[in-house]
Amino acid sequence: GGICNIRPTIRGTFDSINDGYDPTVNSVEVAAAAGSRLRKNVQKNATVEKVGNVAPSPSLTEYLDVATGQVNTRIDGGSIGQIDGTSLNFDSEQADEGLFLKDNIAATPVKVTVIQKASSSQIVFMVPDGEVSAESAYLLLRRRNKTDGPIVEGQSETMEFNPASVAV
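Above: the chain sequence. Below: its structure as tokens.
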């Protein structure tokens, strides 16, 4: 009964009571459990606090330039792009929610207005053209987790940006 109880165990199956240990089917593992001293100390001294659910923020994990097949390297204005991630859904009726193209120069991001597919895990869209002049940009997703809630954001990696007039 101290801090921890540790014991060896054998994992695997035995076809009969007479089967022996076979390293191709069985393995020796270590099992651990809290000891009585640790368990009593935690029960006596632990404090609990109720916390609300943490609202998920959008996570933009991968950008695919559909025309070139390049991933997380270059955004071409006027081309078709695809973002994969989690919590990507948004209310398209709200002006401050959606997918945006942002560079490090302009103060205001450019909203993506042509979206072919939008789900919580993937967005397929036309990259805005002519409104970003910087050499690098990133995608920014803004959404609310509930009506009238605060905006939460997620962004992609910063990538090379090519306006449609010079895209290669």
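The helical segments are 36-45.
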